[in-house]
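Quick start: read one record
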Amino acid sequence: NGVKQLLETDPQISRPFQEFDHSSNLLCCSDAVYNLCDGTSRSHDPDLLMTQITRVPMSHGTPARFVQFMNEIADGDDTLVEFLQIALGSCLSGAQEVHQLFYFYGATARNGKNTLADLFAFLLGDYACSFPAEALLHNRSHDSDICTLKGKRIAISSEVPDGSRWNEMRLKNLTSDTMLSARPMYGQWQEFPRTHKHIILGNHRPTLNTMDQGVTSKFVLVPFNVSFKGREDFELPKKLKAEGPEILGWLLAGHLKWRENGMRLPPCRAVDAATSDYFESQATVDMWVEERCQLVDNEHCVGRDQTQANHLYQDYRQWKLDRGEQPLSLTRWGEHMRPRFRKIKANGIRYIGVLLKNSRD
């Protein structure tokens, strides 16, 4: 035990976790270490204390089959291809300034999103991890899942189930620039900086129960609308991996474009339209109010211009169920109603100035 304690405190042998992989702007590849600020490289050096490495070296040649693949999944949309190059390239670094969460969505079968995500994870090697999609959904996970994100550059979650609902607080935490907190199963709580970006894959779009800017400002929905069903190239993953070094160079070029643009993603009409359509389709409490309620200005309210909270909630609940979606609890629903409507206690809780449509005499 005495020898062990000496070894653990000797700075030439033992180093604290925080000293390893400390630079978010260095990428250790199998051929060299690359500075992501300018694309320059240097030889491997033990003094850099890097414990992670990509699976392939870097090359600046043209990945011809991969370029063809990208054009195919983007249906010839050059702006979408460039967007994906810069978005994926941004994931090479551990920059905390970026808060986006990429949702690769395609309702059609065999649309290429899994092939692209699997290839990206393969190339990044130790820098990539899988993250259970259930951990991003409402009431579905333990905090131990977050421990897998420590030191990673990219986390990939695949196949969100139909009819699910996002855990919006979890999404905010995983895309914030604060420290992440997690506790391994039967372990102690630990804190570490967020270094990862997140890609989620899905054929369905989980519901959001609020249009809070803390969530909507981070969501980027990337459409995969082309189906290759019936014309698949089952050798494609092998062909793409053979171009791995050139694809990694393509990603580095995208990363440098991202930096030149002030760490911002480029405009892309397809992405903007898909993201807007997603938000507009969400059955939030505000949408229920717009569809099912009649509002009366407070200055013109009379005694009957009020409705019992339970009647309103039951109508909201049935409205959600009719859409095949899970309603909020009464408490959560009330939290959304509170900022918009005044309430009083009179034979239970009543909301002033809000009526159910067709409920007045």
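The chain has a mean pLDDT of 89.
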